[in-house]
# Entry
Amino acid sequence: MSCVSMAEYFFIKSSVIRFACQRIGLLYSEVALKPNLKNLQKEDNGFVKLTMHQLEALSKILKYPLTYLMLKEPVTDIDDLPIADFRTVSNSKVHSSITLCEQIEYCQNQQQWFSDYVKDDYEPFSLIGKFKTFESAEAAANKARLALGITFKGFKDPKKYLANIKEKLEENLILVSISKVLKNTTTRLQLSEFRGFALTDSYAPFVFINGNDALSAQIFTLCHELGHICLGLSGVSDVSSKNKAVPEIWCNEFAANFLMPKEEFSNDFKNADFLDDFIEFAKGKYFVSSLAILIRLYNLNLISKECFNESFAKAKAQYQKLLSSKLENKESSGGNYYRTVGSRLSALLTRTLIDATSVGKTTFRDATYLLGLGSVSVFDKLAKRY
# Structure
C-alpha cells in the first residue's frame, strides 16, 4: 500500500502579488508564465493557491519577503530607507527604489563586519562626529584637509586626484566605494535617484559614490559625504544648491571649502581677466565642475547674481549634455573582470577581508558575500591580484 502526500496550499491575495510585481517593475502576467508559477493564472475571488515551494520561488523573484506575501494587504513601506533621506523635491519625500535600498543594506553589512574586525586594534579618524551644523563649515574643512594631508597640487587629471582622496580617506579607516552598479551585478545605479550616501560609525565610517556621475562631480560628492562623516550624520545626500536641508547646506559648504580654499581661490579669480578663462583654469587646478566654481564665486560675492544666473544656466546645460553622452556611450563589459570588480569595492575592505580569511578569522563564504562575488574561486582569483 503506497502513501501519497498531498501538497499544502496557501491562499494568497493576488492584489498583494500585483503590488510586489509593480514595485520591482515586473508584469503580473509575465511572472505567471514561469513554469512553476502558473497557478497565478488561476485567480479565484481575488486569491490564488500556492504551495510553500512556489511561495519561496515567488518571494525570490519579486525580492519581497515571503511573510509579506501571505498578508491581506501589501506592506507599502518596505522601501523606506534605513538611513536619513536628505533628498528633496519641492519639500516632498523622494521615492526610493529597491536598488538603492539594497545597495545601502549591502554597504551596511560591509561596514558592520569591518567595524567589528578593527575596533580593538585601530584608532578611528579623529574628526568623526566632531562638528555641528551651527559651527563653521570652513574651519571644519580646513581641519579635515590638514588631518588627511590632501592637496590639489601635483595632480594632472581628476581621475588621479579622486583616487588620491579615496586613498587618503582609507588610510584613516574611512571606507570608500565608487560604483556604477548595484553590488557587483550589472544593474545600473540611477544617477537621477542619488549621487552618494554616508554611513557613520565610530570605527568604520563608509562613503558610497554613484560612479555614473562626471569625475568632477564625484570628487565634490565624496567631499560632501566626508562632511557628513565629520557631522556624524548618516544619510542619502543631495548636493544640489537648491536643497534647503541644513545638513546639506553645511556639507556643500564643507566640500567647497575643502576643494577650493577661500584665500587661494579668491586670489586666483582676482588675477583673471575673464570669467570664462578663470572657470577653465579653476577646473584644471581644483578638479571641480563649472557649476561648483560658479556657486563658490557667487557665495564669496565675487560675481553678481545676474552674472551667476546667466553662466550657471549655460554650465548646467553643458553638464546635462555630458551626462547624456555618458549614458549613451556605456562602457563595455570587456576588460579584466577582477580589475573592474576591485575598482568598485573599498580597497581597504577588500585587503582586510583577504587578510582575515588567510588567517582563519573569517570564512571564505562570508568574504565572498561581503565582496559581492559569485563563488569562492572568484574570491581566490581576486585575492591573487592583491
User: Anything to note?
Assistant: Residues 323 and 329 are 10 Å apart (CA to CA). The chain has three domains: 9-69, 98-327, 338-385. The beta strands are 9-13, 47-51, 175-179, 196-199, 206-210, 235-236.
